[in-house]
Structure formats: structure tokens, C-alpha cells
Amino acid sequence: PYILAGALLGALKILNNIGMKEITEHNLRLKRIIVDTVLEAGLSLVGYSDNMKLWSPIVTIKTGLSFDEEKIIWRKLSESGISVSHRGSLGVYGIRVSPHLYNTKDDVEVFLEEFLTLIKKITK
Hints:
Blueprint: H1 2-18, H2 20-40, E1 44-46, E2 59-62, H3 67-79, E3 85-89, E4 92-97, H4 105-123
Antiparallel strand pairs: 1-2, 2-4, 3-4
């Protein structure tokens, strides 16, 4: 238990040194890139609001594909080392992306390029 407490203390120090406001702003900047690119591509988002005050870093992208086709996209992204999840319930489903402190703009751009390429391949 003492090792875990030490690890938690170290993690909290890192977060406090960076600052929660800065972390939140970073995460939302990355989400903005995802949102803008996805909407430009003609896709939609689950639970989207233009009001950024209501945002969390999490975004679920509706591709317009079937649940099984999205599962293929999720699997291929995972095989490429891109960590997203495939979520769905009661006929509402999508690819869930959650950028955080350890992600960069380059990470988001790599995800978007691969994601949109996979959608194009499936819809051909």
C-alpha cells in the first residue's frame, strides 16, 4: 500500500506542477482539432454542443457505418497502436476518443488521418 501512496503522491505533484487549468485547456484544444476535422468530413458527434463550457475531452464520433463496421475500424486503429474505444448502446454507437495530457497535436493528427482513411476504405 505504501508504494501505491507514493505513486499517487508523485502523480499529484506532476498534475499540480503543470496546473489543472493548463491540462484542461490542452485537452480541449486537442478535442477542438478532432471536432473540427470530423465535422468537416461530414461525420457527426454523439452529444455535441457548440458551448465549450459544457465540454469534456471525450468525444464520440458517429461514422454512419454499422456497428460491426465500426468495430473493424476500432480493431485496426488498436492494431496500429491508436487507443480509442468502440462504444454503443440502444442503437447509438461510435468511436470514442479521449485526448489527455500525454497526447500531442501530432497524435491527434495521426489518429484522424488513419481513422478517415479507414472509413473511406470501408465505404468504397
